[in-house]
Amino acid sequence: MEKLIQGIHKFQADVFAPREAFFRKLVDGQHPQALFVTCSDSRMVADLICQTDPGDLFVLRNAGNIVPPYAPGAASGEAATIEYAIRGLGIRNIVVCGHTRCGAMAAVAEPQATANMPRVRGWLEHAQAAGEIVCACYGHLTGEPRAKVLVQENVLTQLEHLRTHPAVAAALAAGELKLHGWVYK
């Protein structure tokens, strides 16, 4: 915790103070360029990877950069964030960004790893299609190449899940939204 507290003081003195005018503009509202869906892995820092400033990205992070398919009547933080990004903020680009050496994808490949984590296991069911695609189409791969393909297929699976959300479907149909799939190595 000491490192975090020191970081706050360093931010106030070395970052905020010299750029105070920039930060004051952010008080008036946000106009992010994209919704960036990525993993909660501590090594995945969207603003660092994309070299963006505060206000540039609207970030949704969770284990495995997962977007559950839309389910009528079922509210979720992911669904609310997606809808707000499109309808509230007018975002015109959504990036789903996976990453290599993802613990969530390792757990999809080896389900026994989450034997004592029922909520994690349940959450990762949203990536099961990617796991089955890898088994069906990439059975010849093992080790790191297989893990890499699983990460890539999961990004594609989550893009398909995004398309089931009403706000996404409507914006895509109107030509007002673009979806992008990325993998960070």
Strand runs, count: 4
End-to-end distance, in Å? 29 Å
Order of strands across the main sheet: 2-1-3-4
Helix proportion range: 40-55%
Secondary-structure class: alpha/beta
Number of helices: 9
Largest sheet: 4 strands, parallel
Radius of gyration: 18 Å
Q: What is the strand content?
A: 5-15%
Order of SSEs, N→C?
HHEHEHEHHHHHE
Mean pLDDT: 96
What general form does the structure show? globular
Low-confidence stretches: none
Task: Describe the fold and architecture.
The protein is an alpha/beta fold and 185 residues long. It is built from nine helices and four strands, in the order H-H-E-H-E-H-E-H-H-H-H-H-E. Helix 3 links the parallel strand 1 and strand 2. The longest helix is centred in the C-terminal third of the chain and has 20 residues.
Describe the secondary structure blueprint for this structure.
Blueprint: H1 2-16, H2 20-26, E1 34-39, H3 46-50, E2 57-62, H4 77-88, E3 93-99, H5 103-109, H6 118-124, H7 128-137, H8 143-162, H9 166-173, E4 178-184
Parallel strand pairs: 1-2, 1-3, 3-4
Helix pairs in contact: 4-9, 7-8
List keywords for this structure.
185 residues, alpha/beta, 4-stranded parallel sheet, 49% helix, globular
Briefly summarize what is shown:
This protein is an alpha/beta fold and 185 residues long.
